[in-house]
Amino acid sequence: MKHKTEKLVIIGSGPGGLTAAIYAARGGLNPLVVAGREAGGQLMLTTDVDDFPGFDQGIQGPELMSKMRKQAERFGTRFIQEDVETVNLENPPFIVKTENHELRTKLLIIATGASAMWLGLESEQRLIGRGISACAVCDALFFKNKNVIVVGGGDTAMRESYHLSKVCKKVTIVHRRGKLRAQEALQKLVKARSNVNFTYNKEIIEFIGQSKLEGVKLKDTQNGQTSNVPIDGVFVAIGHRPNTGFLKGQLDLDEKGYIIVEDGVKTSVAGVFVAGDVSDHKYRQAVTAAGAGCKAALEAEEYLEKLR
Ligand code: NAP
Predict the structure, then answer these.
(1) Which residues of the chain have pLDDT under 70?
(2) Of 10, 48, 101, 163, which has fewest CB within 10 angstroms of its CB?
(3) How far is the CA of 158 from the centre of ligand 1 (A)?
């Protein structure tokens, strides 16, 4: 176990964490980023990013994250490629523990983002990775020329369906209501694909198959009738859950686990700031996370000035 004392530790290496690192490094806070074993956040699982300002022809998610990381490194940011196991925020210096490090720090920025949610069925647990996925970019090629279902009616479901429609034979979007929640532009994009169709007012109540997915049992949410549908793959795209398990009892969280903030980036503990999806269940964009990262770094700098 290595013991280190730091001025600022940033947990998370998505757009929020890395933007915080760029600003903090330029502001002389010499940040250390605990990047997580799978660094880069959700954009690492995204292909075309067309809405991040400054890239008129779009950019691939992993390339954007690589550029942000290099930019942070250019100003002296250091990285640890480990997950945080526990934090103690009782009194400063705060303690952040990873597998191989115990870090003490006066300032902390939490930017751990959010992860995909599952339906929570027993049969789902058994078949995740065996026909069930939550990441089209990662797993679409396993379903080349096959038939898949995408569950959900939001932006994520549309993005996943669009990506899958380029690879799969047929994509069926199964939504529990009669109306999509997704933004108009994404709906249009998906509806223009000839191999995508929509099944409304239906939910999956069981996944069929023992060691490999073979089908699903659908229930009509209006009349309760059930039917079995054979299918090669299911992509669950029903939203995200904030990665705050390690913060329970340390910071104020809302009922869904999001960090409660004041002025966008301040938490219930002085000296601990937040950036990105870990406190934002509404906008959840790379650019809003980056904006929050900038604010968190500037607030951290101001807080340190006041302590002096
Ligand atoms: P979301 O907007 O919360 O949508 C989740 C969808 O899944 C809803 O249609 C919901 O149904 C459905 N759902 C939730 N729980 C379910 C369950 N247990 N069983 C069946 N269906 C269930 O989540 P999201 O699509 O991940 O988007 C979250 C945020 O990220 C949004 O603000 C979105 O704009 C943003 N985002 C943006 C982009 C982009 O390209 N700009 C891409 C992805 C996400 P109901 O509609 O009935 O509630």
Answers:
(1) none
(2) 48
(3) 9
